Amino acid sequence: MSNILEISHVTKQYTGKTALNDVSLSIPRGSIYGLLGPNGAGKTSLIRIINRITQPDSGTVLFNGSPLDSSHLKQIGYLPEERGLYKKMKVMEQIVYFAELRGVPVKVAKQSTMQWLEKFDLVSWRNKKVEELSKGMQQKVQFIISIIHQPEFIILDEPFSGFDPVNADLVTKEILGLRDKGATILYSTHRMESVEQLCDSIALINQSEKILDGTVADVKAQFKNNLFRVRTTSLYEPSDSTIQVYRRDDDYNCILKCSEAEPSNYMLTDLMKTTQVLHFEEVIPSIHDIFISKVTNTSLYA
Q1: Is residue 62 within 8 Å of residue 6, measured between CB atoms?
Q2: CATH architecture type of domain 3-220
């Protein structure tokens, strides 16, 4: 899979502050890439550079193998965290207007707008002013505007903010559908549970520097610690010296740790010598737990 966006050694400074320090990212085409980090980490600065709102002080950004320039903006969709709609403008007029700005012929823009309004149950609101819509409806309109021109690269900054669970599920399905049709999505969020649901790969930025990146599966595997959660029918005491009780919740539930290369085989063999196993699973850290551990510099398994 080729990369649609290559960010190499990008640094950005403002007066008295370094926003990005030698940051490099490679975003695979046709994937959902999570851009994670606490407030003030540098995510917004990077998004502004990709949108050519600002320029890096040093480093390069390549889009489809070419230096990023203004000609690429028609191929980029952007849903900002701070929504920006014209409140006095009617819904359909506004969506069509933004589509035309991205080069979509007006007839095509109107047809596409109606299709998206139908998907989001907004057809009856198409001639209403934006200020007459609820916050959730306005967010749907903003989402449509960000993708109405069928961009190949979409930046979504906290796209679920303010959505109820029903509409969050609706937008999730549309995001996955866009990815499945070939779009690449840069997803910036603080909602770690949605990262595991949506993202193929992630990068974690903290204090202006990238401190972690990779596929979600590889990142989680990197932080495994040979721990297994076990439930048995009786108290289990290891007879194998390679196994230790890492934590015991009660007589029937515990977390075991094994130093062997194939820990599950050793544990199950020893467990079945003395007790019946009701539950056995490896403890895999969540992206949320990894995020907290890396940002706060604390132990993941404290």
Answers
A1: yes
A2: 3-Layer(aba) Sandwich (3.40)
On whether the CB atoms of residues 141 and 95 are closer than 8 A, the answer is yes
Write the single-letter amino acid at 154: I
Residues 6+ apart with CB under 8 A from 75: 63, 151, 152, 153
- 22-55 burial code (b ≥16 CB/10 A, e <16): ebebbbbebbbbbbbbbeebbbbbbbbbbeeeee
CA pair distance 133, 198, nearest whole angstrom:
28
Q: Smallest Cα–Cα separation from 82: which of 133, 138, 120? A: 138
pLDDT in tens, 222-245: 888 889 999 999 999 998 888 999
With contact defined as beta carbons under 8 Å apart, do 254 and 245 qualify?
A: yes
Neighbours of 134 (CB within 10 A): 10
- Read off the pLDDT of each residue in 2-18 and give the average, rounded to a whole number: 93
Distance of CA 74 to the CA centre of its chain: 23
Calpha distance 255→236 (Å, rounded)? 11
Predicted confidence (pLDDT) per residue in 80-94, tens digit: 887 778 899 999 999
Which region among 56-60, 124-128, 164-168, 256-260 has the lowest average model confidence (pLDDT)? 256-260
* pLDDT class of 302 with cuts at 50, 70, 90: low
Q: Is 10 helix (H, G, I), strand (E, B) or coil?
A: strand
Cα–Cα distance between 74 and 77 in angstroms, integer?
A: 8
Cβ neighbours, 10 Å, residue 21: 16
